[in-house]
Structure formats: structure tokens, C-alpha cells
Amino acid sequence: MPLISLEFALFFIVFFVVYWLLRMHPRIQNLLLLVASLGWLLHISTAFVVAVVVFALMVHWCGRQIIHAAEPSKRGWLAIGIVVAVANLALYKYCDFFVPVLKTWLQTDVLDIIMPLGLSYYTFQGVAYLVGLYQGKTEHLKFFNLLLHFSFFPTITSGPIIRAGAFQSIEGCNPGAAAQLQTSQPRHIIRPALAVSLILLGILKKWWLAGFLGENWVDPVFDNPLQYDGVSLLTAIYGYTAQLFFDFSGYSDLVIGMAMLLGFKLPANFMMPLTAINIRDFWARWHITLSTWIRDYIYIPLGGSRKGFVRQQINVMAAMVLSGIWHGYGWNFMLWGALHGTALVLLNVKHRLWPVTASPRPQSIILSQWLTLTFVCAAFVVFHTASLAAAGSVFQSLLQGSNWVMPINVGALSMLLLLGVCWFFYPCWVSGFQGFVGLLEKIPMWAWPIPVGAILLLIYFMAPAGIPGFIYANF
């Protein structure tokens, strides 16, 4: 049952009514949320429910040992919990790498393994929870609340990665899940106009914009790059980054809005990343809950910037390569992480040799934004293709001189220019969204179905047929 479907919409409306009838009983609301979350997983696969329950039991047990063990033993229990969690993730995530070898060795075809839905996300949440307990920064969660924290149905598919404890990001201080789950105070809907607007924005981005770009401009070109002219290839390369942004940020908008309607505040996952002025700024704004997790649980434990400039660059590269490997086991994912790591290291070296002493001029900012975007788009070619050879075919066709002298694809050129105009005026779209939120807040709630219904009808008639899946659910 996809989040963008009539079935889920009907389920959520009924659930919403029952949930708020229990407003004075947060514990019963939690139980209702847990039943809905596990029921949703059970509808997909019984194995997914078993996987998250077993994982929650393991993390809860290790957490109790960390709390009650003597000081010298706490670190050992933390290490055990992290090793088991990461090993569990690696077993499923990289099974496609070693299962063919085992099949050949054992002469059997019964070793196919399906990765549990949301495994990466609740693994990261589990590691953050155990570290928070060890550091004394996270309150202990009762088992069923911990299980709800891992299986919360809006976030389990593709995040955001909400931690049990509070954490810092470009947005500021983000509240953790523990305090929100274990509150004894009645919950309330958080800014209903903004919540509804985020849901609409998420549907628009994911169903219409991402679907349109993927179906018409990205997928056909990446499937057969050698058959297309240079303009079409360039449109597909920039278009894929736009598609990925609309897909993933749209999902994040959708689930953040749903959580607000249920009385929960989730951390922002995207903050205008395609207008970043450099690659460091990009990672502060793109998939924020993952990039801050990498910062806090990989980069800083490796030493961060505390052990000298050279060691800092090694830590940066290691963190970004591990980020790439997390997305998949292929060499293309490792290369994608290494490309971003290299870009960050070069930026650090540049700022070390030539510190920024004055505010940049507007034209310099625009040029920096475009160069950053172009690098991100080129790196995503490696991310998107199935192998290094396939990525090489895309770049080979793009750089082939004959592809730029053949008749220009006017449609592709028009789309490329449209993407550029939309990117240049992106701040205007953000202001327009804020204006829509303000409009809903000014008019009575009974009148909301008019603008909301009009937007939904527009999306329905303009979006491609079918219900699209979420790209990041595969990671």
C-alpha cells in the first residue's frame, strides 16, 4: 500500500479520526501507532515484522546492559550492540555480493535473501540510541516505545532518520523521538496549515514532477545513452538530479506533514540543497538526517578535525566513501562517495591556502552555485547507472563531438532551459509555498477543501499514470 495511493489516504483518514479521539491518552495513541506500523509491515511481509521486532529486542537488551553495567563494562556493551546492528545491516544489504558465490559453492538456489523494509534507517536509529544511552544524552525507552521508534510507519521506508535524542543540524536543534513518544501530556496537531501544505507539496514533487522527469527525460536516455544527442544527454543528467531531489524531498515533505498531523515533529531532511554554494554547503542541506548521522557517528569518532589538518582530510574521505558504500555494494557507489570526499578535501585545502576574507559578489555566488550543482549532477551519473561501464557510456556519448553537431532536439533543449529557469528562481518557489501556507492560515478550515482539492485535481490530471515507487526505498 504505497503512501501515495487512494487506499493509504482512506486508511490515514480513518486512523487520524480514531487517533485523535484518544487525545487524552498518549500511551494508547502510541499503542495504536504501533499496531498500525506493524500491521503495515505485516501487509507487505511477515519477515519484515520479525526483522524489526528482533532488532528492537537486541537493541533494547544492549541498552539495558549499558544503563545498568558498571562503568568499565558500558563501553563493551555499546561495542557489542553496534557490531551486531552493523553486521545485521551488512548481511542483508550486501547479500547480493556473496550469495551467488555461496550458491555455486553449495550447489543450491535456496539462499535468496530479501532486505527488510527500512533496515538501513532503523539500524542508524538503533546505533544513535545506544550511543546516546552510553553518553547519557538519551533517555531510556520502554521496549514498545523503542519498537515504535524503529517501525513508525511514516518514516520506516525512507526516513528521515529521527534519533531518540536531540541533535544539531543546519535547521538548529532538532527534538528527539524519546521525549515525544514518552510524553504524558496530550499531543496536539502541529501547525495544521503547514502540515497539509507539506503533504500537498510532497505529492506534487513525487507523483507529478519526479514521475514526469523520470518517464520522459531521464529513463529513456540512461537506458540507451549512445543513441541520444548531447543536449538530450545533458538534459537527462541535470534532470536525474532534479528527479532524485523531487522524489526524496517529496517523500520527506509528505511524511513530515503526516507526522505533524499526528503531533510529532520530525527533522527537516532537505533545505534548498540545489542552491548550495559549495559541496560542504550541499551536504549540510541534502539528506540532512543522514549527513549529520555520518558526521556524529563516523567522522567525529574517527577524530574529526581534532588530530590535525591531514588527518581531518583522511577522516572526511573515509566518511564519504562509507556513505557511498551504504547506498550499495557496487563499485559505482564507492566511486560516488570517493568523488564527494575528494571534492570536500579539495575545498578544505582551498580554504586552508586561500581563506575567504570578504563577502562574495552576487555573480560569484551564482557561479559557485552552478558549479556545485554541475558537479553533483555529474557524480549522480555514477550513482544512477548499474556499473562503471554504464556510467562511462553516458560520459562517452556526452563528450563525443558528433553528438553536438547533429540536429538539435528542440524538446530536450526546451526542457533543459526550463530546468535552468526553475533552478534560478527556486527561492521564488519557496516564497510561493510559504504564501500558500499563509493563505490556509488566514481562511477558515472548512474552506480548505477548495484550494487543496484544486491542487490535487491538477496533480491527478498532470501526473504520469500509475503510482510511482520511492527511489530511496531501495537503499
Tell me what you see in this structure:
The protein folds into two domains: 11-181, no CATH class; 192-277 and 360-469, no CATH class. It contains 19 helices and two strands. The chain has helices at residues 6-21, 26-44, 46-68, 71-93, 95-106, 119-135, 143-151, 177-181, 192-223, 230-261, 279-285, 288-299, 309-327, 331-353, 362-384, 388-399, 410-424, 426-442, 449-462; strands at residues 167-169, 172-174. A hairpin with a 2-residue loop joins strand 1 (167-169) and strand 2 (172-174). Helix 4 (71-93) packs antiparallel against helix 6, helix 10 (230-261) crosses helix 15 and helix 13 (309-327) runs antiparallel to helix 14 (331-353). The longest helix is centred in the middle third of the chain and has 32 residues, at 192-223. The mean pLDDT is 89.
